[in-house]
Amino acid sequence: MAIQQKWLVSVPAATLWTSSDSSREIDLEAITNPVHLDSWLEKLTYEPRLELCNGNLVQSQVLYGEEVIVLEEKDGWVHVVVPSQPSSKDGRGYPGWVPKAQLTKNEDWKLDSRKAAVIQKKKAALYSNDREPELVLSYQTILPVLKEEAEWIQVQTPGGAGYLKPEDVQVYETIGTIRKGSGKDIIDAGEQFIGLPYLWGGMSSFGYDCSGFSYSMCKANGFIIPRDAHDQAEAGDPVELDAIEPGDLLFFAYEEGKGKLHHVGIYYGDGKLLHSPNTGKTIEIIDLKDTIYEKELCAARRYWQETGE
Description:
- This protein is an alpha+beta fold.
- The chain is 14% helix and 35% strand.
- The protein has 6 helices and 22 strands.
- Strands 17-22-18-19-20-21 form a 6-stranded antiparallel beta sheet.
- It starts with a strand and ends in a 7-residue tail after the last strand.
């Protein structure tokens, strides 16, 4: 079919599947519109949750209002790339498949030239024109601002106009003016998610994987970094392991740091790591000393100094 069309995600978080037939019966609530992420995740006990990774079923997630480029369509699914998630897999953005029902076209979408409302709470309600709660949106969802009032921020959504509460968002003059944070700001952003269960491919406050967590906390501070850990380890500013500071990304590899890179976390300071470990665990802060991570630590990168912080 016709290629290279821009569409918008019309659900709070669209999961990016590896292929058009990757989803299972248990995943039905994740591939519909409306999507039912909470009930999907409740049903995902350890084994089916682990299979998202081990079965190579899921690649990433895309937030409400984010643009994707549609490459092809097949049986109600579309093959897309996600420009906001840099990847060595495709120079145009992260590739994968999403249900067509979770995308919409909006020719009037003007995120680049308008004020932008960025959700700062872990989750926030999007309200309809009648001021009724309509959707629960993730941290770091970004929508164009139409009008600011004392009690409401009117925003453009993929489906029309909606409303957010001022206390749930930060409004910027344009998306390009999102404040660049410090290493400590990256830590502060991540701390609020301690206890959130790990989700392979997770890129929303419904659940993060390791690199989704580091990507999202950097994004919250004005830095768009690559989506995957191995790409994150190749970008940014290299930091010697004896010179790491809070907010730096730490990378871990098998064979005591000499093998394949498999994990990323955020250096917390005082020899501690803030990270989203793996399936069955939750976001946590741990002491690196005397852990497998201490042996596997192989590299560090700094993103927060690129602006001369």
